[in-house]
Specification:
The protein has helices spanning 3-14, 46-58, 93-102, 106-116, 118-127, 139-150, 161-165, 180-191, 198-208, 269-288, and strands at 16-24, 30-33, 39-40, 67-70, 89-92, 177-178, 227-235, 238-246, 252-261. The chain has a 5-stranded antiparallel beta sheet with strand order 2-1-9-8-7, sandwiched between helices. Strands 3-6 form a two-stranded antiparallel sheet. By secondary structure, the protein is an alpha+beta fold. Strand 7 and strand 8 (238-246) form a beta hairpin.
Amino acid sequence: MTAAARIREAFDEAGVTGRLHALDIDSGAEIGTGGDHAVVTASVHKLCVLVALHEQAAAGRLDLTEQLEVPLSGRELGPTGVAAMLDPVRMSLRDAAYLMMAVSDNTAAELLLGRIGLDAVNATTARLGLAHTYAVHTFRELLATIKEDAGPGGAQALADPYVIARLRALDPARTNRSTPRDMTRLLSAVWRDEACTPEDGAAIRRLLGLQVWPHRMASGFPFDDVHVAGKTGSLPTLRNEVGVIEYPDGGRYAVAVFTRAASTAATLPPADAVIGTTARIAVEALRGA
C-alpha cells in the first residue's frame, strides 16, 4: 500500500475528511493527498500574522519591544493567555506574539492585527507566492460569524449538524483559507530564511517550537531527539496543524494537515491523534524516498 493510501485509510478510520501535504525542506521531495484543496485555516492563520509582524518589524514600521496596554474590556473569548486573564495587562508586541503562537491566545492575535492590519497579512502571503492563502476576517470577526450563524441556541447549538452546516467559518470560500501545499511552502520559506531576515526567521522558529499542545502532530513523533514545531487550528468539527519535524541527522520536513470530523463532539481524541499518525506516515515516506 502506498503512503498516500495509508494516509487516506488513517483519515477514514478516525472518522474525518483529511487533507495533507508534506515537503522535504532541503530536497523538495513531497507527498500529499488533497494538498491543493482549499481548507479553512482557523488559528493556523496566526502563522501568517506572525510572519507579517516580523516583516513589518524588519522594514522599520514597528518595534517588537513596543508596549501594549490590554484593558479588561474588549478581550476575545478564549480559554488561554490574556483572553482568560482577569486583570489589566501590559506587554510587548513580541510577547503578545508568543502567547498567540504558544497557546493560541485570540486576544493577543487581535492585538497584533490591530497594530498591523489584515491588509499587511495578505500582502505578506501574496509576496511569498501563496496564491491560495487569504485572510477574510480578524479572529474577532471570525468568532462573531460563528455566534451569529449559531443563532439563539448559542454554543449548545454547535452540536447540531444542521447548525454546523450553515457556519460561514467552516466554508473556505467565505473565511480565512489556504491549502496544505501553501502552508508547507510558507514553513519551508521560514526554515530556509526566505520569508524574512535570518534574525526574524529564527524568532519565528523559536515561537513555533514553544507551542504547548502535544496531542496532534507531536503525538506522531514521541522521540526525545526529534523536534516538532507547529501551530494548531480548531473550530467546530475542524482540527488542523502545520509544523516542521526536525531529525537529529538534519532532515527537515514541513507538514500541513487539515481535518474535518463527521462528529460534532468537541472532544474527539481519534481526530486529534490522526494528525500525528498521518504526519508520521508522510515523513517516513519522505525519509525512505
